[in-house]
Amino acid sequence: MENPDQTVPPNWAVRFFTIFTGQAFSLFGSALVQFALVWYLTQKTGSATVLATASLFAMLPQILLGPIAGTVIDRGNRRIIMIVSDASIALFTLLLIYLFWSGKVQIWHIYLIMAVRSLGGAFHYPAMAASTTLMVPKEHLSRVAGANQTMQGLVSIVAPPAGALLVAVMATQNMLMIDVVTAIMGITPLLFFSIPQPRQEEHLAGAPRRSFVQDMGAGFKYMISWPGLLMLGLIATTLNFLLAPASALMPLLVTKYFKLGALQLGSLDSFFGVGMIAGGITLSVWGGFRKKILTSLTGIILFSFAILAIAAAPANKFWIVIVAQFVFGFMMPMVNGPIHALFQSLIEPGMQGRVLSLVSSVAQAMMPLSLLVAGPFTDATSYQAWFWVAGVLNLVIGLGSFLIPAILNIESNHKHTHPVEATVSDAAAFD
Question: Looking at 170-174, 202-206, 262-266, 411-415, which range is the least confident one?
Fold first, then answer.
């Protein structure tokens, strides 16, 4: 069940971090575009319905097409898929730039672009995550996950103020051009560096290739038949359900309960981002406990206390929420990084696209569902009520997982569950 030994060249870091840096620039450009488009819709319409619809278009493709995208990734060339995803997003962004420049842009155009960007992300993220497994030695996956969390924390801090500054001094079409440039920066390293490909054993033996539907079904069966992996996926999905409303409800908590304003609300985002960067750097240097699952479960328990502190904070003790947000942000890489590393180190390379896409799409589907539940629940109770629910249930999940052998021993019990399904072959740089 464990990934087969990888022949990782001595200069693996050069290849991986060159690609990683290009992707970081592309992520930053995407964050700027997202800010610019949301700001444009806000200024143009002032409609909460329009913003909610835009969010739906930006979310649904990844939710609905995740399993299909994962199967394409496992059957196809991951480097080409990443290039095509980034290039397609850039081309549609160029189309939107033209529409802004010509004064023909309509709200539905922006909806369409958001959907295309989400569709590209549905293929790009799992392709990059699955490729990381074959480019990075297994012992460094947790540190690389920490570096990735650090990058996301930096983007979450830098992109909003940078976007606010740029929309004040640049036309929208000029700001969108930044995303095209950063997309090119993301694509360029992929043109010169190879990405290893998983090669299915059935192909090596000359067996007939399974159909697309059979391959997609194999991803579901793979996850269901491995109790530890299925439970870990359910934990990730449940956490997403419980945590997604927290950021949505925070403005109400700050303004209605603490009687404070936008400056204090913005400070919470900043402290969360700083905590996430600090946690990502710590994980990159430390690497976590030897058993990765212990790092994640400990992180869940500790950020549960941070959520409970937010719920319990008196109305005149806003500083408690600031500290809790920092702790929450610090623990997020400790939770997410090792889980990603576990998925990458335990799941066969030829299955990673399907499994990662499936977990991602189900987890994202929890976001609108949880908001539908948390909104009326908060209106019927109090501004702190959902934070109490989320804190208590997260704590139960964290502590209870220590009592479930399938989760606690996931790094060892997988060997007896499945046969190895894939071996690794290194793709040519221009195949």
Answer: 202-206
Q: What is the DSSP string of 373-405?
A: HHHHHHHHS-TTHHHHHHHHHHHHHHHHHTT-H
Judged on CB neighbours under 10 Å (0-12, 13-18, 19+), 232 is buried
Residue 188 to residue 338: CA distance in whole angstroms? 29
Protein fold of 216-416: Growth Hormone; Chain: A; (1.20.1250)
> Within 10 Å of residue 415's Cβ, how many Cβ atoms?
11
Residue 349 is encoded by which pair of tokens? 């390379």
CATH for 12-195 is 1.20.1250.20
Which residue intervals of the chain bear CATH 1.20.1250.20? 12-195, 216-416
Tell me the residue type at 89: I
The pTM assigned to this predicted structure is: 0.72
Q: What are the pLDDT digits (tens) for 227-272?
A: 888 888 888 889 888 988 887 788 778 888 898 876 787 778 778 8
Cβ–Cβ contacts within 10 Å for residue 123, how many?
Answer: 28
Q: How far apart are CA 111 and CA 56, in angstroms?
A: 9
